[in-house]
Design a protein that fits this description.
Blueprint lengths: L2 H8 L3 H8 L6 H14 L5 H7 L5 E6 L5 H16 L3 E6 L7 H13 L4 E4 L6 H8 L5 E4 L8 E4 L1 H14 L5 E6 L4 H17 L9 E4 L5 H13 L4 E4 L2 H13 L9 E5 L13 E5 L1 H16 L8 E3 L1 E4 L6
Helix pairs in contact: 1-2, 1-3, 2-7, 5-12, 6-7, 8-9, 10-11
Length: about 325
């Protein structure tokens, strides 16, 4: 019997069971359900596993949304460079692409406890309240990348200012009709912050914000293509489109080309993330680049400091630059 079995029998989440076992306050009715199952089953937490966690295994766990975009492989490359020099090894796990369920992350955290890792680097996309609650009960040092969770040390990207810079760049080139096809706001940094940067960039340039010129979607396949189709039908032609990330930009360009627009002569397209393919796409994609190798290196040094109980760990923000190519004029 394990924590998952207890949660099912009590009709509560695994995070709730974990909070009860760790003496953290939950709703009385939930605690009563868990306590009843614990009493009936005689379940006792595996204290030996918790003790083993404190021993030196020289293992670091990494949770990624996916290994497909080059963003994540570069982050891992940066971490590996630092951690291997310090005698640590990585255990890398992924969730189900970008359609992460609650239990996926919680199961992976439990997996790392079973493997006795000394610390975890977590790259989240959507952060739910249940995941936050479970992380609150977690015993291991943890560093996040891209999002801030529960006061944990974090390596963050300057998504807001990067988006503002994109708008400023397009405006300086003479664009005033700039559409936005991006990620849903529930993805806080790559969704909400990038869209907010776009809107405030327009505002500072004296361009009226038109909600109809903003389309948001998820990370599903072909989302850029489908979103561009909907965008052109509802908005019509603009002079430039800001794509929420590079892979989305590829779909946008493919659709525009199919229906007879020339990129960039008719409509300029700019992305963000500077995926490896962007330099070789036709036309090559102008994009915002973050230093993802440096991101991994910074995160690796943070988790080592955390393990060594250096509590004066400050968040770090990764800067950006615009890589000019052929998709914008």
């Amino acid at each position: 019997m394990n924590i998952n079995d207890i949660a099912k029998m009590a009709g509560v989440s695994k995070a709730t069971v974990s909070r009860v076992l760790n003496g953290i306050k939950v709703k009385p009715e939930y605690k009563e359900k868990v306590d009843r199952v614990l009493l009936e089953t005689g379940y006792k937490p595996n204290r030996l596993a918790r003790e083993l966690v404190s021993k030196k295994t020289k293992l670091i766990g990494v949770i990624l949304p996916s290994l497909k975009p080059n963003v994540y492989s570069y982050i891992v490359e940066g971490m590996a460079k630092v951690l291997q020099d310090k005698g640590y090894s990585l255990i890398i796990t992924t969730c189900d692409e970008f359609n992460v369920k609650e239990d996926d992350v919680i199961d992976l955290l439990d997996f790392f406890i079973d493997r006795h890792v000394e610390g975890i680097v977590y790259v989240p996309n959507i952060i739910t309240e249940e995941t936050k609650a479970y992380i609150d009960t977690y015993q291991l040092p943890m560093v996040t990348i891209g999002e801030k969770i529960n006061g944990l040390p974090a390596v963050l990207f300057d998504d807001y200012n990067a988006s503002k810079s994109i708008v400023d760049y397009l405006v300086k080139l003479g664009h005033e009709s700039i559409g936005y096809i991006g990620i849903k706001d529930e993805y806080h940094s790559v969704g909400y912050l990038r869209r907010l940067g776009y809107m405030n960039g327009l505002k500072e340039a004296g361009i009226e914000i038109d909600e109809s010129m903003m389309v948001t979607t998820g990370f599903e396949k072909n989302n850029g293509y489908v979103a561009a189709k909907d965008f052109i039908k509802s908005v019509g032609q603009v002079t430039a489109i800001f794509a929420g990330y590079d892979r989305m930009a590829y779909g946008i360009i493919n659709y525009l080309t199919k229906v007879g627009y020339k990129v960039p002569e008719d409509i300029s397209v700019i992305g963000i993330d500077d995926d490896d393919v962007s330099a070789y796409f036709t036309p090559s994609l102008t994009s915002v680049s973050f230093d993802y190798v440096k991101t991994g290196q910074v995160a690796a040094n943070m988790i080592i400091d955390f393990i060594k109980e250096n509590l004066d760990i400050k968040d770090q923000v990764i800067d950006f630059k615009i890589i000019e190519r052929n998709s914008v004029i």
